[in-house]
Amino acid sequence: MSHITTERPSIVTLAELSAAGYQPRTVKAEIRTNLVAALRGGATAFPGIVGFDDTVLPELERALLAGHDVVLLGERGQGKTRLMRTLTGLLDEWSPVVEGCEIHDDPATPVCVRCRTLIAQLGGELPVGWRHRDDRYGEKLATPDTSVGDLIGDIDPTKVAQGRPLGDPETVHYGLLPRTNRGIFAINELPDLAERIQVALFNVLEERDIQVRGYALRLPLDLLLVASANPEDYTNRGRIITPLKDRFGAEIRTHYPLDIDDEVTLVTQEATVVAAVPVHLVEVVARFAAGLRESAAIDQRSGVSARFAIAATEAASASALRRAALTGESEPVARIADLPDVVPTLRGKVEFEMGEEGREYDVLTHLLRVATAATFRDRLRGVDLAAFTAHFAEGETLETGVLTPADDVLAQMGSVPGLATVLDRLGVEEDTVSPGQAAAAVEFVLEGLHLSRRLAKDTVDGVTVYGS
């Protein structure tokens, strides 16, 4: 029987499953087989993961092929949780289970008392159900109040009250880990788990079984355990105890995007925008985030999450939509003028060094200007912008702001030779140019000329005037 199907299989008994040629295998063997197939076929094994192709993913692939449980170590907002959740794509689409089993036993090799009893009674008529791979992923955010009962299990007082003796394994109420048996279980922020609770994971990782309140109960678990953690030198909230770290097969360090193109791709992929955001504006935001990660004014132990750039892009698009609602613009497009007003809303996503108290806004606005200038140089290097500067040579000015409609910006600028070239360099196709896109390009050029000291600028009460 094929291990990867597109529809829920129709097999309903163990006899039918055996006749179809089913061979049980562990979760890690299943992942290994499917990962090898993906690598040989050139398919993307981790869809939606950006910037890890040459660093994190090869390490993760080696760990999975080796059958190792994994810790992903990195600062906030580096995509650790997203990466863990993509692992479900390496499971078979449908997996057979004993119908009604709490821990999703394999019909061919059941381990719990209930299922072993059923197979002894029913043999080949044992009822078989099917579980989709999306249901084979469990996740828990480690919090200080997490208990052993949450993860492993505890005595169910209801079953005891029904007359079952305390020594009966049927009185156990299984925790999250047993209920993810034959699947993938992820623990977010593992160091936040109390050390005495971490000890409860020893058997799961090494002996692959669980113990509940001293029961003589051996329940072999079949799962892949993946955990995420922030570097210990930043969190100071806890640590992964040494014996537990020793039981994980691999510790893989994640990172922020290493180049601007990857950050742009990530923001474009993840941001939910309510108005058009030109690619050059996304690039400014990406450079802004990268600049923060390199700044001595920022606490780099905390990191600057990818959510910073995503939130900035979403807020810029919201500013464009607000402008359209207030001014009647037909097609809202975010412009460079929308970014400064977004900066104050982003301060909570960045932790500053102690000596920068009171200067947070100044640091952010400075780095935004640096990012804008760098994008201007990169995008428009070699483009003749003399026509733009010539427009202001006779004392002309252009007034703009977050509430200035695109048509007003273009009317003040008039016809400018070279605008088509600018639009092309900014990735706007000639046959799709809208007034909003043209105005966004004009504003970007004017801001770039100002930052390169070729054009004067004055801003008062949210109104910006370029020119004399």
Strand order of the largest sheet: 4-7-8-1-9
Overall spatial form: elongated
Instruction: Supply Rg.
Output: 29 Å
Total separate domains: 2
Kindly report the name of the CATH homologous superfamily of the largest domain.
Answer: P-loop containing nucleotide triphosphate hydrolases
How is the main sheet built? 5 strands, parallel
CATH class of the largest domain: Alpha Beta
Structural class: alpha/beta
Could you characterize what this model shows?
This protein has 468 residues and is an alpha/beta fold. It folds into two domains: 14-253, Rossmann fold (3-Layer(aba) Sandwich); 260-467, no CATH class. It is 41% helix and 12% strand. It has helices at residues 14-19, 27-41, 56-66, 80-86, 113-122, 148-151, 157-161, 176-179, 195-199, 202-205, 232-235, 242-247, 260-270, 279-294, 306-327, 339-342, 360-380, 386-391, 406-413, 419-425, 435-451; strands spanning 70-73, 94-98, 128-132, 137-141, 153-155, 172-174, 183-188, 223-229, 250-253, 397-401, 457-460, 463-467. Strands 4-7-8-1-9 form a five-stranded parallel β-sheet. A three-stranded antiparallel β-sheet has the order 10-12-11.
